[in-house]
Amino acid sequence: MNSVFHRILQWSAVVLLAVVLPVTPGWAQDLLPSWNDGLAKKTIVEYVGKVTKEGGPDFVSQGERVAVFDNDGTLWSEKPVYFQLLFAIDRVKVLAPKHPEWKTNQPFKAVLENDMETLVESGMRGLVELVMTTHSGMTTEEFEKIVSDWIATAKHPRFQRHYTELVFQPMLELLAYLRANGFKTFIVSGGGIEFMRPWTESVYGIPPEQVVGSSIKTKFEMRNGRPVLARLPEVNFIDDKAGKPVGINQHIGSRPIAGFGNSDGDLQMLQWTAAGKGARFMLIVHHTDEEREWAYDRESHVGRLDKALDEAKKHGWTVVDMKRDWRRIFAFEK
Amino acid sequence: MNSVFHRILQWSAVVLLAVVLPVTPGWAQDLLPSWNDGLAKKTIVEYVGKVTKEGGPDFVSQGERVAVFDNDGTLWSEKPVYFQLLFAIDRVKVLAPKHPEWKTNQPFKAVLENDMETLVESGMRGLVELVMTTHSGMTTEEFEKIVSDWIATAKHPRFQRHYTELVFQPMLELLAYLRANGFKTFIVSGGGIEFMRPWTESVYGIPPEQVVGSSIKTKFEMRNGRPVLARLPEVNFIDDKAGKPVGINQHIGSRPIAGFGNSDGDLQMLQWTAAGKGARFMLIVHHTDEEREWAYDRESHVGRLDKALDEAKKHGWTVVDMKRDWRRIFAFEK
């Protein structure tokens, strides 16, 4: 055999491996190394095997393999409070010199005095005011830069790590595993759509157009002959609870076959996913590891998991016990 | 050489061709056979060559190759009126037996009497009422079925062809050509998002999540234990004119590098596309062929092209002269 043939054979092997390997079931399980062998991992792998088996009774064509993931508490942590709220708090501190009135006006006074109790007491109204003030009044481009700068530098109070290091390694593997099996992966989060988009592609491999979230209104304007989108202090859409199926329909336009969440805010998204025809997969991440991450469910103010846990048990949805099912939670763990 | 080697060589050839060919420039021009050789085709091919040339000064990475297309008048015809309005008219006729009051109430009376003049006189208010009445009051699933049934059966008054046959063959080729060169193709239309999604994937190769359009509000409800999204008679978003950049930002989350339109309704989308950094491509389809399709621009009520034509000339955007630039408009032409 001469050397040209040799080379062609080598090339064909490389190309064929690249094409064939990702969809070979035996290989598949090794794509989830941070998952302990157990019921959760087993049901995931079985489900993916089922819907990707051509000619099988549960086969789903590639374009219809849509999987939706909540973000806060499902793909990354959400304690002590949603990271976006910590972003808003940091913004208030940065902007404070230009707003002397904040020294006496709530909820800004509480933020500047690190008085979380009073901030929480300001309730939804206070939080909305905090978010609106810090998330509007600039163009979309300016906001993208503000978020990018913050996410690249700010650190989590407990772990002293960047927030993007607090993503769950098993879920990163799951996202990649699903994509290797022809799934389109979407984020469907109560968080701000433009707070997530600047970093979801590099962190999760999810491009901006596959991110669904809450939003404020924007307005097209010409400024000095240059078009901008101005961010207005007005809610456009809240992508939480009953809003999630609405957001899914609006952005994705087809019903997911698999849904992943961790709190009651994800219940309607999981119900909507479950109610479609054919084989469905619903999973809830249950935070049970206060040592490596946090342990909370029915009584938690952030990420409360109560009704959705009952529904999961009732309908046989997969519940991940973080402590038991995840060999590793964060990539930085030893 | 034995037969196993033979087979492997054949396979490797097939695989390599599939991988290599779509990005080979020489091959590219043959993907646009319905375009006459001329300036429009030349600028398209040159632009695509430029942004896909790795290491070149205008190279754009694959994830950022976002192209946006208007639908009515850009991908399919829009005369005598937007096809979605013809759908609404057909729905009024189907629903009329259950609405005896329509015999006397406008704009329904005009529709039932085929009195287009009075219908047009009812203005935007009459048209909105017509669309709301025919597009709401059912679930999203029910509406999808209604649209799918109509699009599969209804015929265009002039051509007596299904509406999906009135798509422009050169634009189908352009969509496929861009995708073969690593572009993501999106529709950004003033038309109803849920009116388009049932058929855009099979007709244009554009999946539902890459369709942006106008919408009415929907509401998540449990009906007999089953979740549905009810379509409400309330406008959610108008994806036209200054709304198009807003819709692009909301759904796509990054700025397109190429934009394709045909009317003043697309002007802001093209301005938004043009204002980004790096090499940009803006194209306007000018309807100049009354024999094969229609000829209209500055004076037309549907698809008026006036300001955008001036802007195109001013900024050197590509203007397609349908009569001159398109060898074939519809696939059914001889």
Set down the secondary structure blueprint:
2 copies of one chain form a homodimer.
Chain A: H1 3-20, H2 25-28, H3 39-52, E1 66-69, H4 83-95, H5 108-112, H6 116-121, H7 123-135, H8 140-153, H9 169-180, E2 184-192, H10 193-204, E3 211-223, E4 226-237, H11 243-251, E5 258-261, H12 267-274, E6 281-286, H13 307-315, E7 318-321, H14 322-325
Describe what this molecule looks like in 3D.
2 copies of one chain form a homodimer. The first copy, chain A, is α/β, with parallel strands linked by helices and 334 residues long. Chain A is built from 14 helices and 7 strands. Chain A has helices at 3-20, 25-28, 39-52, 83-95, 108-112, 116-121, 123-135, 140-153, 169-180, 193-204, 243-251, 267-274, 307-315, 322-325, and strands at 66-69, 184-192, 211-223, 226-237, 258-261, 281-286, 318-321. A 7-stranded mixed β-sheet of chain A has the order 4-3-2-1-5-6-7, with helices on both faces. In chain A, α12 links the parallel β5 (258-261) and β6. In chain A, α4 crosses α7 (123-135) and α8 crosses α10 (193-204). Mean pLDDT of chain A is 92; it is low at 20-26. The interface between A and B is large, with 45 and 45 residues.
List keywords for this structure.
334 residues; 14 helices
Radius of gyration of chain A: 22 Å
Please give the most extensive interface between any two protein chains, plus how many residues each contributes.
A-B, 45 and 45 residues
In helices, the fraction of residues of chain A equals 40-55%
Distance between the termini of chain A: 49 Å
Strands of the largest sheet of chain A, in order across it? 4-3-2-1-5-6-7
**What is the number of E strands of chain A?**
7
Give the assembly state of these chains. Answer: homodimer
- Beta fraction of chain A: 15-25%
Structural class of chain A: alpha/beta
Element-by-element helix/strand order of chain A: HHHEHHHHHHEHEEHEHEHEH
Average residue pLDDT of chain A: 92
Query: How many strands, what sense, and barrel or not for the largest sheet of chain A?
Result: 7 strands, mixed
